Amino acid sequence: MTRIVDSLAALAQETRLKAYRLLVEAGPAGLAAGRIGEELALPPATLSFHLAHLARTGLVRSRQEGRFVIYSADFQNMNQLVGYLTENCCGGRSCAPSTKGARNETVSRARRSA
Amino acid sequence: MTRIVDSLAALAQETRLKAYRLLVEAGPAGLAAGRIGEELALPPATLSFHLAHLARTGLVRSRQEGRFVIYSADFQNMNQLVGYLTENCCGGRSCAPSTKGARNETVSRARRSA
DNA sequence: GCTACATTTCCATCATTCTGGAAATATGGA
DNA sequence: TCCATATTTCCAGAATGATGGAAATGTAGC
């Protein structure tokens, strides 16, 4: 669950979401860090900070290629994230008001008399 | 896009994600605020802060019912969020390395000579 | 080795978010 | 009206996150 929260937090920031979308668009070939910085007009330090954040959660991979560091989206991890949301947070249409567990009261057990 | 970032941020916090999942589990009937506070063992002020945060993004609705305020998940907004991720961030299997636009270079235009 | 470019790390600053006690604001029942 | 309960608002302190300049590190070609 920490993994999920971290991934959500990684995408819950405009700059990082934009960067991630660029990488999705770029596909497996990916993009050099500097290229992303160009597109988003970010100073190097800020860019590096955000890319590191995305990489730390696994949503993005990086590989060295000559003088460049190429970032690319990790679709498998993204699928896991979306899968989690669909299953646990009801993104799918199977949003049936689950019946598992005995938590079938709207208000508190202790205070229902109130 | 601000809407998306806000929704992601709302879920990118352990307490709120837990609260949201309780509400998904509870279905349209929802849960009284206090009931959620009980489950998560949160002091009232903290609980209220997080529920308000979720409500502000539209992921959750609230209705007054007697002395209780009942919160419930808004599945429509959640579906929109998951839909966005699937389409723009490639959660679906149609993760084909998009070909739109002329952004088909991995490194910078200006510096490709390097 | 030296130079040029790419990226990261270091560091300080600023901004936002989280937390929870205490008081205020409902709401319902006696 | 008065009391008990439910929830929110007010407020301040603590923690975490974002930003970016400057210096350090890495890599390639001469």
Order of helices and strands of chain A: HHEHHEEH
What's the multimeric state?
A: homodimer
Query: For the largest beta sheet of chain A, what order do the strands appear in spatially?
Result: 1-3-2
Largest sheet descriptor of chain A? 3 strands, antiparallel
Question: What are the segments of chain A in which pLDDT stays under 50 over at least 5 consecutive residues?
Answer: 91-103
How many angstroms does the end-to-end distance of chain A come to? 35 Å
Number of strands of chain A: 3
Tally of DSSP helical segments of chain A: 5
Average residue-wise pLDDT of chain A: 85
Helix content of chain A: 40-55%
Biggest interchain interface, per-side counts: A-B, 59 and 59 residues
β-strand percent of chain A reads 5-15%
Structural class of chain A: alpha+beta
Taking Cα atoms only, what radius of gyration of chain A do you get, to the nearest Å?
20 Å
Shape of chain A: elongated
Short description:
The first copy, chain A, is 52% helix and 12% strand. Chain A is elongated and about 60 Å long.
What's the SSE blueprint?
Two copies of one chain form a homodimer.
Chain A: H1 2-11, H2 14-26, E1 31-32, H3 33-40, H4 44-57, E2 60-65, E3 68-73, H5 75-88
Antiparallel strand pairs in A: 1-3, 2-3
Chain A binds a DNA duplex (30 and 30 nucleotides) through helix 3 and helix 4.
